[in-house]
Write a structure and sequence with these properties.
The protein is mostly beta strands and 74 residues long. It has one helix at 56-59, and strands at residues 5-8, 14-17, 37-40. The protein contains 1 helix and 3 strands; from the N terminus they run E-E-E-H. The protein binds FE2/S2 (inorganic) cluster.
Length: 74
């Protein structure tokens, strides 16, 4: 089993780190050889989807989700 990390970027892409295979809806593999981390667009504005091209900065994409923190126990 591989070890993959997916990290959200505030107002930006999903950073995927690890040994992954990225496949389109037709079953074709994207060439990610030699890339330790890839950035996947989640704003929809990239001209190079599924990869982020930085367009999220200009399109006003907002996303700042965080992991819910449990309240302190009494
Ligand atoms: S998240 Fe960067 S272009 Fe969409």
């Amino acid at each position: 089993m591989s070890d993959i990390t997916i990290k959200t970027r505030e107002n930006g892409p999903l950073l995927v780190t690890g040994s992954i295979t990225l496949i389109d809806h037709l079953g074709n593999k994207y060439d990610t050889a030699g890339k330790e981390t890839i950035a996947l667009c989640r704003c929809g504005a990239s001209a190079h989807r599924p990869f982020c091209d930085g367009s999220h900065k200009a399109c006003g994409f907002l996303a700042s989700e965080t992991v819910p923190v449990a309240p302190p126990q009494p």
